[in-house]
Design goal:
The protein is mainly alpha-helical. The protein has a single domain, classed as Serine Threonine Protein Phosphatase 5, Tetratricopeptide repeat (Alpha Horseshoe), CATH 1.25.40.390. 47% of the residues lie in helices and 3% in strands. It has 21 helices and 4 strands. Helix 2 runs antiparallel to helix 5, helix 2 runs parallel beside helix 7 and helix 7 packs parallel to helix 9. The longest helix is centred in the first third of the chain and has 23 residues. The two termini are 31 Å apart.
Length: 486
């Protein structure tokens, strides 16, 4: 995969270069020594590679023009305010190869450098070999989870091994291997030296175990309609793991932007770049308003949602007539150093509540559900005991034994905001909320089509994978369903 993707020369997706002098080492033997920089590093620096991979997750929460933005449009978290092609389902051309030649290769280099007996002792200067490998495996799993949920079948088992053109794996194979990777990574941690470069958990192995086990829960539950037997077994095993799961705000997998060069992505978009092409969708603001949900004060700069999927002319007219339409997040929650979150306690509790509601566990769904909503309101700074109590009694919110799974799914969709990939996946799996297509259109996409690089640089394998998503529009349809989308 490395050979293939190094040819692409296009870096897209989550990764952004944090340390350009410490990226993956490229051999220059074919050119002798004339191009060698005597002052440059000749080996990977694992701490820098890890920091870069984590920073990529922070910037990737909102990658303007990239797949998470598109996912957020399809989930109707966001609306386009000027150029509305994406929200009117124009075929996307977003490539995933930049992951492989960027952050995934960085993480694989951490694993290789700490695994090779010739370099393991040197790598140990940056923390326990086993712990560096375990963290890198967990982060690789997280990245691959996002990629496969967006595109479906992707190169996986033969990726990052220095091979050329390679086949795509089917998503069921990928999902099962992700669960294996996470389980093995949790068991791999030891009591060795703290890992350096960890800007999320500071090398705290207990926190990483909870993060990995929580991801296992979410991946397993997403399989509930495609392979309930495996999903239930993996879910219960993850929940029973001694390492535990994310259960409070202190456990949340979040990244705080340091400011300066590395800023909160929404702050960068609205304040630094000064763009306003994206707004909070009226679909979301209507849902929050109708449910008397206090989070509306935090999710946008106003309560004025922007209608989803308008033509360009209609969007421009609405923007001109409603200059106070809601920008994404209330300004105090998108400062230069505001954190972004990958997995939170409310998401994990709602995952557990859904699993209990479908009979996978004997946990009390109502308790987990109520605690999750409280956690979410608290994290967004809108919790008020009286308002919360009233909210929980509403027919659209209260669990009564009838329609409970749909109500839990609605809270999952609300709580995942502004993570477009999670929101899009929740809607695809559950059908909640009941989203309407953009005006005048019939269907909402179910995946992103493969980018334009694939048919050019990996044609035979692309053709095979694209054929698995064939419909009336042809192969590689954006309306084709991924494996778990039943």
């Amino acid at each position: 995969m490395r050979t293939t993707f190094n040819k692409y020369l296009l870096m897209v997706g989550l990764g952004t270069a944090l340390v350009t002098s410490t990226g993956c080492f490229k051999h220059l033997g074919d050119y002798g020594t004339m191009n060698n920089n005597p002052n440059a590093t000749t080996a990977p620096i694992p701490s820098a590679l890890l920091t870069n991979a984590l920073n990529g997750l922070n910037t990737g929460v909102w990658d303007q023009g990239g797949f998470r933005t598109t996912d957020g449009l399809y989930a109707q978290y966001f609306s386009e305010t000027q150029y509305t092609d994406a929200s009117r389902y124009a075929r996307t051309t977003t490539n995933f190869d930049g992951f492989y030649s960027g952050v995934l290769e960085d993480l694989q280099n951490i694993i290789n450098y700490n695994s090779d007996p010739a370099t393991a002792a040197t790598a140990a200067a940056f923390g326990s070999n086993k712990n560096q490998i375990a963290i890198a495996r967990i982060l690789k799993a997280f990245y691959f989870w996002q990629i496969t949920d967006t595109w479906g079948d992707i190169p996986y088992t033969q990726a990052l091994k220095g091979k050329g053109d390679i086949a795509y794996d089917t998503q069921d194979v990928i999902y099962k291997d992700l669960l294996k990777e996470l389980k093995e990574a949790v068991a791999q941690f030891d009591a060795g030296a703290t890992v350096q470069g960890d800007i999320m958990y500071g090398g705290n192995t207990a926190s990483w175990k909870k993060f990995a086990n929580s991801m296992r829960l979410m991946i397993a539950l997403r399989m509930s309609k495609a392979d309930a037997t495996t999903g239930k077994a993996e879910f219960t095993a993850a929940l029973a793991d001694p390492g535990g799961v994310i259960n409070s705000a202190s456990d949340n997998g979040g990244l705080k932007a340091p400011g300066g060069t590395y800023q909160n992505p929404f702050y960068n978009y609205y304040v630094v770049v000064q763009r306003k092409d994206y707004a909070v969708s009226k679909t979301l603001t209507d849902a929050l308003t109708n449910m008397n949900d206090e989070r509306i004060a935090a999710y946008g700069s106003s309560n004025v949602g922007f209608p989803f999927g308008l033509t360009r002319a209609d969007a421009v007219n609405f923007a001109n007539a409603n200059v106070n339409y809601a920008r994404i997040l209330e300004p105090s929650r998108r400062t230069e150093t505001s954190p972004t979150y990958l997995i939170t306690s409310e998401e994990v509790k709602l995952t557990r509540a859904e699993a209990a509601a479908i009979g996978w566990t004997t946990e009390v769904a109502a308790t987990l559900y109520a605690d999750a909503i409280k956690d979410s309101w608290t994290r967004w700074g809108v919790y008020d005991a009286t308002k919360y109590a009233a909210y929980m009694l509403q027919p659209s919110v209260a669990l009564t034994g009838v329609g409970d799974v749909a109500k839990i799914a609605m809270q999952e969709w609300l709580s995942a905001y502004p993570d477009g990939t999670q929101g899009f996946s929740i809607w695809r799996k559950t059908g909640v909320p009941a989203l309407a297509p953009a005006p005048g259109l019939t269907n909402i996409p179910r995946r992103l089509s493969y980018g334009s690089n694939e048919p050019q640089l990996n044609p035979a394998n692309y053709t095979t994978a694209a054929a698995r998503y064939t419909d009336a529009t042809g192969p590689d349809s954006q309306y084709g369903k991924v494996w778990w989308d039943k």
